[in-house]
Amino acid sequence: MDRVLEALGAAHEGSVGVLLADGSEPGPVYFDVGSGSHMPSSSEWHCYDGRHGRPRAALLRGGCSCGWRGAAEYPLDWTALPGDQPLYEADVDLSGPIADYEAHVSLIRDAAVPLPAELTGLLTDLVRVLDGLAVEEPLVALKALADLRYVIAQTGQDAVYELAAREVPLKEVASALGTSEAAARSYLNDYRHS
Fold first, then answer.
1. What confidence score (pLDDT) does residue 12 get?
2. pTM of the entire structure?
């Protein structure tokens, strides 16, 4: 059951975001690892420590990949933080931003269309069986997942076309799925073109 509930939160990633002293939200931090075409980046809160030319966070707040940003702001006291070591090694209290983010995800989860108990039970059983197969019979697990992909694509396409026929507004779809309108549009397009 927990893994089934986690699936709803999967469209929402995040928890702790940062603001700079001027009140702006910084873009990702890029890490120079030498030559090469790929330059790794991150938007994790602890990357904004002011070291190596990176921006320095002034405030922490809850944040989510759906675009939600927490209203509460939690100042970072740089006089109490070591300036010569990575921010993730410091004793920073993240409980406020994390609690705000969890409250956001909880509201999204509560507003989403509830699954019937029978379907939740079936999904829970399926996850349990697939987890066991992944360890004991990995080829059987992969074959089952391949078959499920086909069923999911077909059923998803049928559902998307039915929503279009009923002219269900994108805002209603997003709310029912527990995600943003942009994510819902992408989700629907994935099924439309599968």
1. 54
2. 0.66
